[in-house]
Design brief:
By secondary structure, this protein is α+β, with helices and mostly antiparallel strands. It has one domain: Ribonuclease A-like domain (P-30 Protein), CATH 3.10.130.10. The strands form two sheets. The chain has a four-stranded antiparallel sheet with strand order 2-3-6-7. A three-stranded antiparallel sheet has the order 1-4-5, with no helix packed on it. The chain is globular. It starts with a helix and ends in a 10-residue tail after the last strand. One of its GO terms (molecular function) is RNA nuclease activity. It is found in: Secreted. Pfam families: RnaseA. Its main location: secreted. Belongs to the pancreatic ribonuclease family.
């Protein structure tokens, strides 16, 4: 079996192209990774709120005296479906982007706790349209304060 040099070059170009298009630009990557850590969990359940939030130092929050974040929503979806909201699966909404279809989410609300990491949360599962801030086609922020029950 003979491999032609042009076939090898084409394969190399396709490999590099798919790799570079699958990663956010270097200046966006930390914000995208933080977004994923805080809001992406396809296996999230209401019973996991305490465990998941306690395990992640990104949830230490300055909005409360005890460092406990008041509310956090986890999107239960494929990361590519979430990213698509920044493109064809989203539409402009205020200065952000809203999904054109609802997503399954688990919202964890602070119930009690002395200080982080001893925060106690109660979770609620829901289906809702999500609102994201995107940069260069990558989600970097989930807006907890905007609830769009009917996608309008």
């Amino acid at each position: 079996m003979e491999i032609h040099q042009s076939a090898v070059i084409l394969l190399l170009i396709l490999s590099i192209s798919s790799f570079t298009h699958g990663q956010p630009p270097a200046h966006i990557k930390p914000r995208y990774e933080k977004f994923l850590k805080q809001h992406y969990n396809p296996d999230m359940t209401v019973q996991k709120c305490d465990t998941v939030i306690r395990a992640n130092r990104d949830f230490i929050h300055s909005e409360t005296e005890n460092g406990c974040k008041k509310i956090n929503t986890f999107i239960k979806a494929n990361s590519n479906d979430i990213k698509a909201v920044c493109g064809k699966a989203g539409k402009p909404y205020r200065n952000m982007v809203a999904s054109t279809k609802p997503f399954s989410v688990v919202t964890c609300k602070l119930h009690s706790g002395d200080t982080h990491p001893n925060c106690k949360y109660r979770g609620v599962q829901d289906t809702r349209y999500i609102v994201l801030a995107c940069e260069h086609g990558w989600p970097v922020h989930y807006d907890e304060g905007i609830y769009k029950p009917n996608g309008s």
